[in-house]
Amino acid sequence: MYVKKFGLSVIAISSMAVMAACGGNEEASGDNAANNAGGNNAEEANEAADNNEGANSSADEDISGSVSIDGSGTVYPLMSRIAEQYMVEENPNVSVEVSRAGTSAGMQRYVEGETDFANASRNVRDEEIEEMEANGIENMEFPVALDGMTIVLHPDNDWATEMTVEEVESIFISGAISDDDTVMWSDINSDWPEEEINTYGPNENHGTYEFFIDELIDGQDLKDGTNLQQEYPTLVELVNDDENAIGFFGFGYYENNQDALGVVSIDFGEGNITPSLDTIDLEGDYAEYTREVFTNLNVDAARENPAVKDYARYVFEVADELAPETGFAPLPEEQLQEQIEEVEAIN
């Protein structure tokens, strides 16, 4: 057994994509997405296959069965969108179930052999690799897209829309500004209101939490009283309800809720940069807050179940097209093609 790594190391997403998971509950295992992506899936998919004159490799091979996916709430909108399109346009004979328990919770299910894929907004941990080895699971870790950590505000906040990276992070770090972690806007800038700042973010189940703690604030403790939530739509609502809120999560949840949220343009040392599909890049202006997001593939599941292998291939065929639709910057085409070839080589 080995673990192989590849590549570099909402309230308002579409209703069909939302229904691909467990009714919005990120802690549950999820409903069958095939039953929720539209009532005419089989008919639409057959028409698409006819139009493609038999080019659909899945249909040609009569692939059927089911695929199970759990993990990152950040990656969920992208993977559920891919699953929806796969079942409607590529192969209506395969049921793809997408859930969003969070990176750590989803990885725990995966290392115990309960799912075929685990989406993650961080790399696999050493202890997870050890568990997979103990359980005889051979894993392939693939980047699927690029995400930008986004700092969000109440939409009426017109004073904190531009900050340095040091100012942003000091608000979230315990003891950085005040020993008792009571931080006022005026502590950051004397011209700002003398009102206490309330901090928000995803909880410990999420790779976004881990990325923020481990990579952005160097393992320091979050400010006492930070409101951590399991569900991203809940975070959007909380920030929208609190004029003194500041929170962090992936770019997609901001982009799809811009009417409900404000955003911080961050100065990393060379002027303020607002996260966008144009600035999110590992080597671009927003690189410091850019990360890869991943899916992990159970190799034995791909060997034993043609539907799993076929779906994995499809993920990388359409990721560049569907990533921007769900708030992610796409990976380079050549990287995605290499990953398709790695999947096709599984036998």
Automatic annotation (TrEMBL):
Residues 57-316 form the PBP domain. Pfam families: PBP_like_2 (PF12849). Residues 1-20 form the signal peptide. It is a lipid-anchor. It comes from the Bacteria. Keywords: Cell membrane, Lipoprotein, Membrane, Palmitate, Phosphate transport, Signal, Transport. It is found in: Cell membrane. Residues 32-66 are annotated as: Disordered. InterPro entries: PBP_domain, Phos-bd, Phosphate_ABC_transporter. Its main location: membrane. SUPFAM superfamilies: Periplasmic binding protein-like II. The keyword Lipoprotein applies. The complex is composed of two ATP-binding proteins (PstB), two transmembrane proteins (PstC and PstA) and a solute-binding protein (PstS). PANTHER family: PERIPLASMIC PHOSPHATE BINDING COMPONENT OF PHOSPHATE ABC TRANSPORTER, PHOSPHATE-BINDING PROTEIN PSTS. Part of the ABC transporter complex PstSACB involved in phosphate import. Involved in the system for phosphate transport across the cytoplasmic membrane. Belongs to the PstS family. This is Phosphate-binding protein.
